[in-house]
Amino acid sequence: MYQSLTFYHSLMRWLVLVSLVYAIARAWRGYALHKPFGKADNAIRHWTATIAHIQLLIGMVFYMESPVVKYFWKHTGNAVQHMDALFFSVIHVSLMLAAVVILTIGSARAKRQQADKDKFKAMLLWFAIALGIICIAIPWPFSPLAARPYFRY
Are 109 and 126 in contact (CB under 8 A)? Predict the structure, then answer.
C-alpha cells in the first residue's frame, strides 16, 4: 500500500501545482477581460480545491509514517538542529496546511460572490497567495532548507 501511495503522492503534488497555476491563469484572464464566470470556471475552482485536499490527506499519511518526523518528535531537543528534520516536521507541514486553508477560503469566497468579476478576483487573490506559500514550502532541489528531487520513485 505504501508503494502505491508514494506514486499517488508524487502525481498529486504536480497536479496541485498545475491545477493551481491553471486556475490562477483562468481567474486572471476572466478578471482582466471581464469574462462571465461560467460552469468551466466554477469546475476549475472546485477541482483545484479538491485536488489540494486530496494531496493534504495523502501528505498527512506520509507525515504520520515518516521516519524523519518520528525521529524529530522523539528527539526534539537534538533534532531541532537538523534543518532537514525541522523542515519536514514543522515548517513544511505547517505551510502546506496553511496554503490549503487559504485555498479553501478563496474557493468558498469565490463561490459566494455575486458578480463574476468578484468571483474571479477572489479566486485570483486567494489562490495566488496559496501558490506562493506552497512554493516556499516545497523542498526544491536547490532549497537550502531541505532538498528533494523533482520526481521521487
Answer: yes
Q: What's the confidence (pLDDT) of residue 60?
A: 92
Whether the Cβ atoms of residue 23 and residue 48 lie closer than 8 Å to each other: yes
DSSP 1: -
As given in the structure block, the three cell numbers for residue 153 are 520513485
How many CA atoms lie within 13 Å of 52's alpha carbon, on the beta-carbon side?
Answer: 28
Joined grid coordinates for residue 14: 504536480
pLDDT of residue 3: 62
The pTM of the full predicted model, rounded to 2 decimals, is: 0.88
List of the chain residues with pLDDT < 70: 1-5, 147, 151-153
What's at 77, amino acid-wise?
A: G
How many beta carbons lie within 10 A of that of residue 137, not counting itself?
20
Contact by Cβ (8 Å): 58, 105: no
- Looking at residue 5, its pLDDT comes to 66
For the chain, how many residues are written?
153
Rounded-to-integer distance, Cα 91 and Cα 96, Å? 8
